[in-house]
Amino acid sequence: MTKFDTLLVANRGEIACRVMRTARAMGLRTVAVYSDADANARHVREADEAVHLGPAAARESYLNVEAVVEAARRTGAGAIHPGYGFLSENGAFVEALDAAGITFVGPPASAIAAMGDKSAAKARMHHAGVPLVPGYHGDDQDDALLRAEADKIGYPVLLKASAGGGGKGMRVVESGDGFQAALDGCRRESQAAFGDARMLIEKYLTQPRHVEVQVFCDSHGNGVYLFERDCSVQRRHQKVLEEAPAPGMTAELRREMGEAAVRAAQEIGYVGAGTVEFLLDADGSFYFMEMNTRLQVEHPVTEMITGQDLVEWQLRVAMGEALPSSQDELTITGHSFEARLYAEDPEQDFLPATGTLTRFAMDLEGAGLDPERVRLDSGVATGDAVSMHYDPMLAKLIVFGDDRDQALATLARALAALDVQGVVTNRTFLQRLATHPGFKNAELDTRFIERNEATLFAPRQYSIEEYAGAALVGLNQLARECESDSPWDRHDGFRLNAPHTIRIALCPTTQNQAHAQSPDAEGVVVVEGRREHGTETTWQLTIGGETLTASLEPLAGDAVAVTLDGHRRRLQARRDGHVVVMVDPRGETRLFWRRIDAIDHGHHEVESTLTAPMHGTVVALLVEPGASVEKGMPLMVMEAMKMEHTMAAPANGHVASFHFQAGDTVGQGDVLLEFAADE
């Protein structure tokens, strides 16, 4: 390995921006690559140079080895950093770089191959004395044999793509009845994501924690672990919240897991940053799950508690330098959390979302947050488009505190300060997680979201204070919309000689709804009297028989101060059309706002069509047109953002016709099929 002065980042999004930021701080020139869909993406705008790779489809751009290598040659890049995903664990890519004389910022191809095949990796780990979960990791992929092995292991079992990771090609199978359908789905996902449909089977531990260890090795034979992260809070086997260090770890267990992780890395001749993932059982037993031969999405929490820049470590090791620190020089200080912000709708089974970010900002100063303790790693900015072609993660919010409680309180406040508009996201869901009593008490396991589904997805019960605040925000916006000083042009109920009365209907709504859930859910606020005192307006509000003196004072940006009977509260608030959105550290409130005489009480008819919830590709049609189906029965499968989504029958009836066939691309809102419900 040799020194290099130009680094090409073969990735996109927040990781590309993150790597280039560190590289520039080290005095390196940075090169970005991009597809048609990313021509104006943030990582392209921030790079010193950028090279177009090809069409939007990843296989024709970011996964095109020849195009990436040619981009490095064209720009004189001496090294390529792969980020994570795409080519980061592709041995053929590393070999192509070796042949071209370009340094790969990562492990050798042999190490990637050793851990890329999950079945072979299990055998290597057994040889290295690393504990393993009982399972089947063989080459024989006959359906009947796999079913027999699952029966032998005992249900529930976990089906995993042998060549995969990141939750792709993975299913939990609760019984033999559902085994074949799960196997078929896993194989399709695995083939699409990795070009390899082989499966392995493991015993599914019912309440394990997902604890991973950050390891680092250099080309001089040195290896260290930078402690552990708890990544137990997941949905669809994809991590949502991560923290470091893992709660409840003893010094002895930390050392045992760390040393086992280093043994795993040295067994395969590893060089660079890697993560060894373990399942930690309630009794303190831990089992090797897999090794990610790359930098992980959640590496910032390790950086926060160790004070080390892991990307800088990667670049220095790639230049042939020894590790910057030895094991006894590494220490843990404080606690850190990372929350992954996705363009997805948790209320619709986490379906990916697309659109244009009309606003993407974070008001640290207004929220009273220390910029040294809050970090937002993002690959997007206001005005950027979120497409169907890539992973839906928009950003990572990382916070630090002196202890876990302090860090968690900072996370809740930082999530409230994050303002994302134009695209449905999981921010509100992250707030629910961060404030959930079970999470606060570190009652963690990989089924945390499933176990707490009833509370995490419970309909919000809004308080009188929230209804009052929403009424004021809507009234304030109504007054601002009128530019004329004439009383005849005002829309806020102005009266010349008497107090005026306005009746406002408020009812719950969600991010992907432009209207209220149901007229029956209305809360009515009667607004009487209005007095203006500078920028502040005072009203009398009557809600459910209770009368409040209320005022609203606009602050900087979207911030407002709402005062109810002398209790002043600062929050972020805005009105999007007929929806009022209010955010504070306790969570987000969304209420449909309308003058009572403007509400449409018409009944909605049942739809006879099913529309695409996102842009994607039709994978399979599961029934024949005309066939009778029952409510909830799968009708067709779509793939978007590297995940499969099944469209189900909305009622008993039959599919009159399909509008698309397997392989067709569909847009969000496209009518997929005509459905006739039984009378």
Structure characterization notes:
The structure is a single chain. The chain is α+β, with helices and mostly antiparallel strands. The chain folds into six domains: 100 residues, Rossmann fold; 70 residues, ATP-grasp fold, A domain (Dna Ligase, domain 1); 124 residues, D-amino Acid Aminotransferase, Chain A, domain 1, CATH 3.30.470.20; 105 residues, ATP-grasp fold, B domain (D-amino Acid Aminotransferase, Chain A, domain 1); 135 residues, Glycoprotein, Type 4 Pilin (2-Layer Sandwich), CATH 3.30.700; 69 residues, RNA polymerase II/Efflux pump adaptor protein, barrel-sandwich hybrid domain (OB fold (Dihydrolipoamide Acetyltransferase, E2P), Beta Barrel), CATH 2.40.50. It is 25% helix and 33% strand. The chain is built from 17 helices and 39 strands. The chain has an eight-stranded antiparallel sheet, sandwiched between helices. An eight-stranded antiparallel beta barrel has the order 24-25-26-27-28-29-30-31. It has a five-stranded parallel sheet with strand order 3-2-1-4-5. About 3% of the residues have low confidence.
